[in-house]
Specification:
This protein has 68 residues and is α+β, with helices and mostly antiparallel strands. It has one domain. Helices cover 19% and strands 43% of the residues. The longest helix has 9 residues. The chain is globular. 9% of the residues are buried.
Length: 68
């Protein structure tokens, strides 16, 4: 069974949403459908126990399929 991680999406230091998913990409794709932000910080704990942070530009994915 896949290990699920908790991804915290932050805007200006405030948690917007917390999503539990098996991968970073799946978490971001489910988040971007709900919110119309351009940049968000994402925090999660890796498989090895390190706390990771990333500034992610939205939308993530194929531009042709997204409609831009």
């Amino acid at each position: 069974m896949a290990k699920f991680r908790k991804f915290k999406f932050l805007k200006d230091g405030i948690i917007v949403e917390e999503i539990e998913s098996s991968s970073f990409k799946k978490a971001v794709k489910s988040f971007q459908n709900k919110v119309k932000e351009k940049l968000v910080f994402v925090e999660w704990i890796s498989k090895r126990g390190k706390e990771m942070t990333k500034l992610q530009k939205l939308p993530l994915g194929r531009q042709k399929k997204i409609g831009k």
